[in-house]
Write a structure and sequence with these properties.
With 147 residues, the chain is of the alpha+beta class. It is 24% helix and 29% strand. The strands form 2 sheets. A 4-stranded antiparallel sheet has the order 1-7-3-5, with no helix packed on it. A 3-stranded antiparallel sheet has the order 2-6-4, with no helix packed on it.
């Protein structure tokens, strides 16, 4: 899929490079079909660039308790998370609950040595990650993150 998007971006870049705007056109002249095509291709290229994951992968370990643990810009040096996917691996000893972008009080737990994957395949889709254990429980969680 990424190769297909890269190929499409290359075609857009070539089209933009080969496009030659008419030097006689003024601000009073209505836009030509070429101008409209140029604008649309530029918007498609810019939008595609924003959707492709950067490809930066990193790991983080978090200790989770019965209080909701929120990972967001406040724990990322003030920068938005901008994650496209995250693998959550519960190292235990107790079960955990996880939600992305909004806390919904989930019913399904992630048991010790189990994992859960949230993959939105679009950069910036994951802005917040919520983790929690049942009352009195704790767990260590490994996060494998794709930005």
């Amino acid at each position: 899929m990424v190769a297909g998007i890269a190929l499409a971006l290359g075609a857009v870049a070539i089209a933009l490079h080969l496009f030659n705007r008419d030097a006689t056109q003024t601000d009073e002249t209505p836009p030509s079909n070429d101008d409209i095509t140029f604008t649309i291709l530029k918007e498609i290229r810019d939008d595609a660039r924003m959707q492709i994951p950067v490809g930066e992968v990193y790991d983080r370990q978090v200790v989770v308790s019965s209080a909701v643990t929120l990972l967001d810009a406040s724990v990322n040096d003030g920068r938005p998370l901008n994650w496209s996917s995250v693998d959550i691996v519960n190292k235990g000893p107790d079960p955990i609950y996880a939600c992305v972008n909004e806390w919904l009080d989930p019913q399904a737990s992630i048991l010790m040595n189990q994992s859960m994957n949230f993959d939105f395949k679009k950069r910036g889709s994951i802005q917040k990650l919520y983790l929690k254990c049942d009352n009195g429980n704790t767990a260590t969680v490994d996060l494998h993150i794709l930005e």
